[in-house]
Amino acid sequence: MLLRLRAPVLLVLCILAASSSCATSLTPDKFLIVSTPADGKIAYVRVQTGGNLLKATKPSTDASTVLISSGLVHPQGLAVDQIRSRLLVADPDAQAIYAYALTSGMGNLYAGARTSVATGVEARWVAVDSRGNVFFTDESRNQILKIDHLQSSGNVTPMVLYDGSSSTEVSSPGGLAADSFHVHWVNKQLGSQVGSVVQGPEAPRIDSSPLVTLAKNTDKSYGLCLALNNVFYTQPESIIFGVKKIGGRTQKISDRLTNPRGCAWDGDNTVYVADRGANAVYSFSSNMKDLQSAEIVKTVNLEDAFGVAV
After folding, report:
1. pTM, rounded to two decimals
2. How far are the Cα atoms of 116, 148, 206 from residue 158, in angstroms, in the given order?
3. 103-123 burial by CB neighbour count: b if 16+ within 10 A, else e?
4. Contact (CB, 8 A) for 285 and 56
5. Nearest CA to 128 among 188, 78, 61, 191?
6. Contact 65, 54 (CB under 8 A)
7. pLDDT reported for residue 154
8. What average pLDDT does range 32-43 have in this prediction?
């Protein structure tokens, strides 16, 4: 049965599943998808709202299932294209962004044949908005790039959206996310000077300077995800911060992680965070009007967990 994807993406991937088990439930099952670069694989688990594993099929935090077992070199960032029901995988060592058709049935998730979305790019992070526009960062070239939804069904030449040679707010960009109006990204160099978190229009005007710095509290950040009006972003060690989309005070959400990397929102009230150093994925409640510290709960053990999507 074809998967109907409605919720936004994490770097751990949660997908709304139109499987038979959903028909009798008011709360549909979701899939959390995780990249593990060390072994070149993509895995998944079924989760409930709130971040718990679905006990009927996955009774242990060690019970993940391999979704993609071969053909990838060093997969990192993940995103789900809800319009086309496909998983996007950024593989920097392969110099490519790949797409896999997604289907589900009987509580399982399946990945179809692989196609190339972009080649010759060193993309570590990828994002998709609700219209199917694809965004990614190229850290080595210091660029934010976009593939328009009308062109994103095949291997096309991406458009440079923002370039560090002309915008100081682009400084070795890392994780990113888009909400159909703006693209948000973190910087991995000089964040405390040029912006730890930066926001810019998805379609910038040539005659304006559209970039807005939302936070300047850290030099280096890794992953970023959006949850309603909140922006969450991870640090090289232990910490995940939050800031409002309109900017303002930054808030330490947790300092109890080891090496947090990708994060993703499930479209409801949960954010998932891949912790590469702890070999696990954690979750916390994102349903907060005012940003505050949150309890972090382990969702699943996965060695070298890096990217997540929901």
Report:
1. 0.89
2. 12, 8, 18
3. bbeebebebeeeeebbeebbb
4. no
5. 78
6. no
7. 66
8. 98
